[in-house]
Structures are given as structure tokens and as C-alpha cells.
Amino acid sequence: MKTKGYAAQSAQSELTSYEYECRALRDDDVAIEILYSGVCHSDLHMAKNDWGWTVYPIVPGHEIVGRVIDVGAKVNRYKKGDHVAVGCMVDSCQQCTHCHSGEEQFCEEGFTQTYNSPDRHTQELTKGGYAKNVIVREEFVLRVPESLDLAKAAPLLCAGITTYSPLRTWDVGPGSTVAVVGMGGLGHMAIKLAVAMGAHVTVLSRSQSKKADAMELGADAFLLSNDEQSMEQAASTFDLIIDTVPVKHDLTPHIPLLKVDGTLTLVGQVGPMAEFNTMPMVMGRRRIAASLIGGIAETQEMLDFCARFNILPEVEMITMEQINEAFERLKRADVHYRFVIDMQKSSF
Ligand code: NAP
Ligand code: ZN
Description:
Blueprint: E1 2-8, E2 15-21, E3 29-39, H1 41-47, E4 64-71, E5 83-86, E6 89-91, H2 97-100, E7 112-113, E8 133-137, E9 142-143, H3 150-153, H4 159-169, E10 177-181, H5 185-196, E11 200-205, H6 211-216, E12 221-224, H7 228-233, E13 238-243, E14 258-266, H8 279-282, E15 287-290, H9 296-309, E16 315-318, H10 323-331, E17 338-342
Helix pairs in contact: 4-5, 4-9
The structure holds NADP nicotinamide-adenine-dinucleotide phosphate (NAP) and zinc ion.
Zinc ion is lined by residues 40, 42, 62, 158.
């Protein structure tokens, strides 16, 4: 099947219209017409080769919501017309301990990413959600609960699961104190999810301008990260800090904010981190950890959780033609709070 997407041809080039052939439908495949596609900061990192492993041309996008248009002979979970979703993974070995325990993101062979990853059968590079269509193995297709607004649901597939998973890993619930560093796509979902789980939630942002939004989203408190006095007053108050900052930065000011045995989990910057002082870690048996998206079963659990509590991201709808401008705004942290591409309104 021929399809159209938007691709970057090099780290320097903007994304432009690109035609390509989707892989042939296999027996266990679901063919999807993409309706909405979220814009994650990882798409920007990958398009610009920030992590050093991008192969061009690249069609980004791993927050996909769409409609089933065809299924392979052995598919039994989905049928034509179903509303489905795809996140960051489209395949894995399905044999190793981690795949068996529902944590395909840690597949011993490495999971197949939704874009820019070799297909396990043909070695062709996968192409993501900035497109009209995608074909995905049934096991990696999620069901969108009926009550969720389709136009807003796409960001749940990465921003949602990437923040839901650490909240579950570190047992956040009523009485937990959680801080979220960086109020962007991931950060604003972390606020909503942690609030729904019953936690007391504090936002740490560089910008006072996000305070009103943070409180509106349900946060209980707001800390300006460069206000030293307020930071000192918040010492030893958090069970969990989720750090979503997308660049190398100094963790030293955040570590003392943890209680004894508290955990700061990184979900943002992938790569070298600025040197930090271990003194406050040692003095409070505090931990620095990290987290990677979430497994397929957990992603479905998150979608169902969001349907139950009616949790959806704050979105700015754009067309495919506006993606380069959207990337520029994402770079400046000027998004409220996730861009979603409306494929049907796009005329490429
Ligand atoms: P985003 O929407 O751009 O949000 C990042 C937020 O971090 C910004 O809104 C800003 O918040 C803060 N920030 C931005 N630049 C900063 C800087 N130079 N110094 C300090 N703070 C800064 O990005 P996102 O889509 O949420 O993604 C965040 C990161 O998570 C990216 O690096 C992405 O690749 C990564 N990611 C990881 C996983 C995973 O599985 N671990 C999954 C998805 C994404 P304030 O203005 O409030 O300070
Ligand atoms: Zn993402």
C-alpha cells in the first residue's frame, strides 16, 4: 500500500512531504488509517539526530490514534473500523523474560521502535505516525476506550505511558508526595496522572508563567526551580521526583528535595548528565533512577485508567504542514502542552 508522510532527509533539513510503500500486510498485522498523531520531544531529538543514531529519511511519530482499515488472516482482536492506538513499540522478540513479563521495552533483543528501527523480517526502516497509514503487528496495537476523545488521546501513547509507568513502579497513591520537573508534554501528563492516583503534586518549572496552568491541571503546589529560598523550604518533602527535562542539566538542586529513601527518576535527557554532588544522596539514602516508556499491557491499563478518570492531555491541534513551526516552538518549550497533528485536516 502506498502512503504519504512527512520526513526529514537530514539533520539540517525541515520535514517535507514524502511518499513511500507500507510493508505488505502479514497474517498478524493490522493496517491503520492514522487520524491523529502526537508530537513528542523525542521526535525532534530524532529528526535532528541529537542521539547520534538517526538514519534518514526519517518519518517520526509514536503517538498514534487511528482506524483499522484491514487485518491479516490471523488477527482476531481487531476488525475494520475499530479505533486503535500505537505507541513507541511495534515489535519485540516475544520470547525473552521481559517480553513474557509484559515489559517489551526491555526485550533482550531490543524492541522494534515505531520509527527508524529495522523491521524484524525485512530490515526495512519502520516509519512512524507523521503519515496517513501504518501497518503494525497485532500484539502492539492498543484499543482506545470508547469514552476517550480520539482527537486528544494520541499523546497518552508516549507522554501518558512514560509518566504512568514510573508512578506505578514507585507505588504512588494517596498520601504520596510527587514532584514533576519540567512542565511540557510529559510533565503535564505526570501532573494529571499523579493527581488522579491521589498524590500531593508539586510542579518545578523554570517559568512562573506556567504556575496558573499547573494549578488548573490539579497540582497542589508550584516551585520556581531557580528560587533558592523556596527550594530550601521544600527540602526532604518528596517520595518521588519525575524529571522530564530534555537536555543535560544539574540534578544537584533537586536531590535534597527527596525524603530519605526517595527516588528521582529521569525520563527526559538520554545521554550524559551534568556532574552532580552525591552528598545529598549519601546523607538521605536517596536514589537516582530512570524509566523507559512502559509495556504493552501497562499501556492498555493506562488508557483504561485515563478513560475511567477522564484524563486527557491539553492539546494544540495542528496540520501536518505546520510541523516545522511546531518543532521550533517545542524547542522553546512554548507548547500548551502537546501538539497533535490532525491528519484529516492536513492536505499533504
Ligand atoms: P517538552 O514538551 O519539550 O517538555 C520538556 C519540558 O522541560 C519543557 O516544557 C520545560 O519545562 C523543560 N525544559 C525544556 N528545556 C529545558 C532546559 N534547557 N532546561 C531546563 N528545563 C527545560 O518535552 P517532552 O515531550 O515532555 O519530552 C521530555 C523529554 O523526555 C525528551 O527528552 C524526550 O525525548 C524524553 N522522553 C523520554 C521517554 C522515556 O521513555 N524515557 C519517553 C518520551 C520522551 P518548564 O518550562 O516548565 O521548565
Ligand atoms: Zn515520545
